[in-house]
Amino acid sequence: EAQVTQNPRYLITVTGKKLTVTCSQNMNHEYMSWYRQDPGLGLRQIYYSMNVEVTDKGDVPEGYKVSRKEKRNFPLILESPSPNQTSLYFCASSRLAGDETQYFGPGTRLLVL
Amino acid sequence: AQTVTQSQPEMSVQEAETVTLSCTYDTSESDYYLFWYKQPPSRQMILVIRQEAYKQQNATENRFSVNFQKAAKSFSLKISDSQLGDAAMYFCAYRLTNFGNEKLTFGTGTRLTIIP
Question: Distance between CA A4 and CA A92 in Å, rounded?
């Protein structure tokens, strides 16, 4: 089954404790992206990647890192989480063909205390 | 920068009736895509319908259809014969067609309630 998976689905952590949210897709997609969703703001792009070893900032990259060492994986790293990073995070992927629909993962709900 | 505006934070409709959700966007580009995504309580993002800007014909998917007015930069979603399973947050989104960052720009969402 074609899908985007994220882990963990729920996470409670404390300020400053490094964490990684994994994202994996099995569709051989070149393009992957991270979004965060906050009430009243919709979804906003954090980082994206157009292929292995090619990543770039989205609209709200501060406090986040990403890496793309393999085509299928695109982890989101919070090296020193802060309470303002409490949010719902989505990973998405698509073929890089200009007209492709993005497939979203199930979301990761993060609470930073 | 492109922006997407959904001016209706909440809407409600009687089951089996028709409801229209509004969306306007701002762009200086001529080629782009527009989408409606549904987010049920499970929080999954589900694509409902998409429209290519170069197509004059409005997209339709079963009970879902859009009214795309390119000159007015308007992209409304009509849900016919509303069902209880349609209750969700609906997001309008925009994306350029150029080969590059496939970023979706989202509106702030409309929460749709279905009244039995």
Answer: 7
Q: Would you say B21 and B75 are in contact if contact means Cβ atoms under 8 Å apart?
A: no
Question: Within an 8 Å CB–CB cutoff, is residue B102 touching chain A?
Answer: yes
Distance CA A107, CA A77 (A): 15
What's the gap in Å between the CA of B108 and the closest CA on chain A? 4
Q: Find where tokens 């997209």 sit.
A: B59
pLDDT at res. A101: 80
HSE toward the beta carbon, residue B91, CA cutoff 13 A:
25
pLDDT per residue as tens digits for the range A56-86: 999 999 999 999 999 999 999 999 999 999 9
Q: A107 and B44 in contact by Cβ < 8 A? A: yes
- Here the contacts of A81-85 (C-beta below 8 Å, separation 24 or greater) are A81/A13, A81/A14, A81/A15, A81/A16, A81/A17, A81/A18, A81/A19, A81/A110, A81/A112, A82/A15, A82/A16, A82/A112, A83/A15, A83/A112, A83/A113, A84/A112, A85/A110, A85/A112
Residue type, B105: T
**Alpha-helix runs per DSSP H in chain B:** none
pLDDT at A62: 97
Structure-token match 């509303």, residue found: B82
Rounded mean pLDDT, A45-50: 94
pLDDT category, B96, cuts 50, 70, 90?
Answer: confident
